[in-house]
Amino acid sequence: MRQVSIHNRTRPLKSPLQAGFADGFFDKLRGLAFRRRLAAGEGLVLAEPAESRAGASIHMLGMAFDLCVVWLDSQLNVVDVQLARRWRSVLLPRTAARYVIECAPSRYAEFQLGDQIAFEDI
């Protein structure tokens, strides 16, 4: 799985955020499930082939920790941000999304609707 650095072009992030970039079925299905913890500078990007509400949904089964979930459209604009609680079943974005960023809950305030995000290969 390739690694990316995530940047908020609208408002700079307080600290670097590096993430795995999952675009394969099994990588996306597993997500961050069964990990014991997630550092504040780590995350995962789930990439879908097209914008969709159902396709961009996430599950929290098997999660040992809460997440900040940021949904992006095809132009990498933030279309939704939610706190996901461990062991809740499924969360969907408010509108169709193509990319999902899963990161530590402490990053929640760093993303707002309409923010422009960029991915840079590491």
Question: What would a concise description of this structure say?
Answer:
The chain is mainly β. It is 5% helix and 43% strand.
* Mean model confidence by pLDDT: 93
Q: How helical, in percent, are the residues?
A: under 10%
- First-residue to last-residue Cα separation: 11 Å
Rg estimate, integer Å? 13 Å
| Main structural class | mainly beta
Question: How would you name the oligomeric state of the polypeptide chains in this document?
Answer: single chain
CATH class: Mainly Beta
Summed up, the domain count is 1
Shape: globular
Q: Please write the string of helix (H) and strand (E) elements.
A: EEHEEEEEEE
The total of beta strands comes to 9
Beta-strand content bin: 35-45%
The CATH topology is given as Jelly Rolls
The assigned CATH architecture is: Sandwich
Name the CATH superfamily classification. Protein of unknown function DUF192
Put simply, the count of helices is 1
Point out poorly predicted stretches: none
Give the strand order of the largest sheet, numbering strands 1, 2, ... along the chain. 6-5-8-3-2-1-9
Largest sheet: 7 strands, mixed
Describe what this molecule looks like in 3D.
By secondary structure, the chain is mostly beta strands. The protein has a single domain, classed as Jelly Rolls, CATH 2.60.120.1140. About 5% of the residues lie in helices and about 45% in strands. The protein has 1 helix and 9 strands, in the order ββαβββββββ. The protein has one helix spanning about 25-30, and strands at about 1-10, 15-20, 40-50, 60, 65-70, 80-85, 90, 95-105, 115-120. The strands form 2 sheets. The protein has a 7-stranded mixed sheet. A two-stranded antiparallel sheet has the order 4-7. Helix 1 (about 25-30) links the parallel strand 2 and strand 3 (about 40-50). The longest helix is centred in the N-terminal third of the chain and has 6 residues, at about 25-30. The model has no long low-confidence stretch (mean pLDDT about 95).
